[in-house]
Every structure is written in structure tokens, then in C-alpha cells.
Amino acid sequence: MTPFPASNSVEDPALTGKTFRSQRYDLAVDTISREEIDEVIKWLQGYPRLTMADETKRFEEMWSKWLGVKYSVMCNSGSSANLLMYAAAESSGRAKKKKIIVPATGWATTIAPAVQFNWQSAMCESSRKTFGMDPDQLAKLCEQHRPEAVIVVPVLGVPYDVDAILELKKKYGFMLFEDCCASHGALHKGQKIGTFGDMSSFSFYYGHHMSTIEGGVVSTNDEELYHHLLMLRSHGWLKDLPQELADATRAKYGIDNFRQPFTFVIPGYNLRPTDLNAIIGMLQLKKLDATVQRRASNHLVYQKELAGVVEFAPGLPGDTISSISFCAVARSSAERKKIVTELDKNKIDTRIFTAGNLGCHPFWFERFGKFSAPVADWLNQGGFFLPNNQTLDRPEIEWICGIVRDAAKRSG
Ligand SMILES: Cc1ncc(COP(=O)(O)O)c(C=O)c1O
Question: Among 44, 119, 210, 218, which residue has the least CB neighbours within 10 Å?
Fold first, then answer.
């Protein structure tokens, strides 16, 4: 197949402004435009404070409003946001037995804190419909382990089975963490993913729906967890708490006013962002809805064009997928190899499906043994990514799908 003629010239200034684009179909492209960098330079020329202060608070308020939650705590990455969710569950005393169910498909740092904090973890099989946690398998694990927490991933922006998992939450009373690091703007029956659990995390790394260079956020409607997140992000100190609560906490310990800001209540971290990240975040938020819309409509083109050619997560009726890449699954590793070769010849980036089966990575199996289950193994063997981002449009995706179709046909 000949290269798509206008391949790398399509740019939509309403979405991206002028961003760097290579001569390949990259999986990840920058969302920070030159115009936005110019605005940042203007802000810098006012010689503002750069470390975390008022701009971060303003970003957090804007983000909470966009997502539809009460509280958000910005931090320096999506992985840090995940770490904070586990830490807040522990320090608020809601995970005394430290028992969690984790997904087989997601990202390494979705589950790394469970290992680092020595939580008793059981891994859950994935669903063919969503590639997220399979609710039937989760039900079995809940019966067996009675977890205090479950961490779900809307895999690549495909909403997990929210209704079924909320039913299980009601029945078993676990805390629900939503790792939405790659699913900004995905919807379950019109409501944003990241608003259904006790806490949710998002990443603002390069190539995601929006970027703050590096960055992340934890969002929650729970005031007590919010206060723990604030302390955990900054050394465990009282300084960032609302004044009244800081005063009351100091008084409880009989500490004088002078010492108050530097009183360390819980063992914390330093996971702070900078105000520079927050300024970029506010610029990015302005176009997030347009970016999400483009990614969602591109995803539908992939689904239509590749039906019957490769497998993919169809998602659940009434849900909206906002994908970071399109995940296709070949019938075998051999077929995947043929498709990948053709993609590479045509300068279309690809890679394995996220981390494949997380239970097949040394950080997991060296401690707990290999995890094997039909869907997670199938994704591990046949899954690969196709580019979806806000710079791609329908003709380009149709062209990419043509390459995949031809390669799949040839492999028989
Ligand atoms: C599901 C999931 N969780 C966590 C992360 C980590 O985010 P970060 O790269 O900002 O640390 C990612 C990154 O893509 C992710 O996809």
C-alpha cells in the first residue's frame, strides 16, 4: 500500500495549535502547542513564584469542576497519584488489613504501591468486553479475600463495567480506586469515569489527553481523604490543611502556634507539582473537551473499519470510549508479528498492549508467581496498539486500517 498522501500535514489548530509532529504516525504526540508555550513564557516574564502555590490551587479547582468532584490534589505524576490513593487509604485507617484486588491489565504503577506497601494482593482476570476487570471473577475474589480496596483501570479509555462493580462495592463494602491515568473524558451513561469510586487518579504525561509536562491528580468527594492527600503530598505536615482543621489538630496534640505549620502528623512524601505545571494544565484544560471528542470519534472509526479483522474491546452499551491508543488483538502472536512488520514499513508506530498481562512481569511473578488467565494471556499474546490522538482524522485512520486489513488477510 502506498503512503497516505497528506499523512503528516494534518493539523487542527483548534485542537492542537502548532505542535511538533514527526514524519511517522506516532502513538504519542504532544498536546502542548507553541502558542501555549508562548503564553507560559509571558507568564514567566512576570517573574512569578514557580513552586506550588496559588496557581496549583486554581488548577485543582478547575479540574474538580471539569471532572465533577469536590476535591482534587495535583501531584507530579499519575504514578504518584496512584501512590497517594493507597497511602491515603492507609493513613485514614480504612485499610487496616491491607487487602486489595488488582487488575491483570493496567499499568505497572497501578499495582506497584500494593507491592511496596506490602498489601495482600490478589490479581483479577480481565473482561473481553472492556479489557478492564471481569466483574464475575472479581465477585469470586471478593468472596475469597474480602478486600478493603479494589483498584480498577478503564483500560485505554474504555470504561470498565461500572454498574456491576458498584454492585459488588455495595455488597462487599470495599473502597474503589479508579486509575483513570489514560481515560480522561470517558463516560459511563454520560457521567465521567473517575467520579464513581472513593478516589480517582489521572496522569498529565506527554501523549495523554492533556499534559503538564509531567503531572497527575487525585480526585475525591471525601473530605477526610482529601485532607490526608494534602498532608501526604507534602511531608505529612499541617501546613496545607484548611486553617480550622490545622488549628484543631495542633490543639489536639498541645502544640503551640509557632510550631504549627511544621508539625508532621503522618509520615508523608514530597510529590508536589510546581505552579509552572499548573499554569500549563489550565491552558490544556481549555481544549480538553475538543481533544476527547476527537479521540472518541477516531476510536469509533477504528471499531467500524476493523470489525471482523481483529478483535478489540467493544465497550458496554451507553458508555463513551476516550482512548489514548486503539488496542487491537490479533488472532495469534504470528499474525501480530506480520501486522507489526507492515505497520513499521509504513511508518506507523505500534507496541505491545499496555503492559500485557501484569502478572507476567518480574516485579510481580518473582514475589507471587506468574498470573495466568484466558483473557489476560490472550491480550498479552495478541494485543498491539494503533495510533489515536487529536492530530489524526478519519482519512488517516481509514488508511491505517487498510494496512492492518491487508496484513491480516495475507496472514490468512
Ligand atoms: C493506567 C495507568 N496508570 C498509571 C500511569 C502512570 O502515569 P505517569 O506516567 O504519569 O506516572 C499510566 C501511564 O500511562 C497509565 O496508563
Answer: 44
pLDDT digits (tens, 9 = 90+) for 291-305: 999 999 999 999 999
Listed in order, strand segments (DSSP E) in 166-249 are: 175-179, 187-188, 191-192, 199-203, 216-220
Which sequence spans correspond to the domains of the chain?
38-277, 288-410
CATH number for the segment(s) 38-277:
3.40.640.10
Q: Give residue 180 CA to ligand 1 midpoint distance, Å.
A: 8
Helix, strand, coil content of the chain in percent (nearest 5): 45, 15, 40
Out of 31, 80, 84, 107, mutate this one to test ligand 1's pocket (max ligand atoms within 8 Å of CB): namely: 107
Statement: residue 234 has pLDDT above 50: yes
Distance between CA atoms of residues 204 and 206, nearest Å: 7
Residue 21's pLDDT is 52
Cell numbers representing residue 46 in the block: 512576570
- Name the H helices within 104-192: 108-116, 135-145, 162-172
CATH class of 288-410: alpha beta
Atom of ligand 1 nearest to the CA of 354: 16
Collapse the DSSP code of 99 into the 3-class scheme (helix H, G, I; strand E, B; otherwise coil) and give the result.
strand
% of the chain residues with pLDDT over 70: 94
Instruction: Report whether residue 325 contacts ligand 1, using a CB cutoff of 6 Å.
Output: no
pLDDT digits (tens, 9 = 90+) for 13-49: 445 454 555 568 899 999 999 999 999 999 999 999 9
Report how far ligand 1's centroid is from the alpha carbon of 106 (Å).
Answer: 9
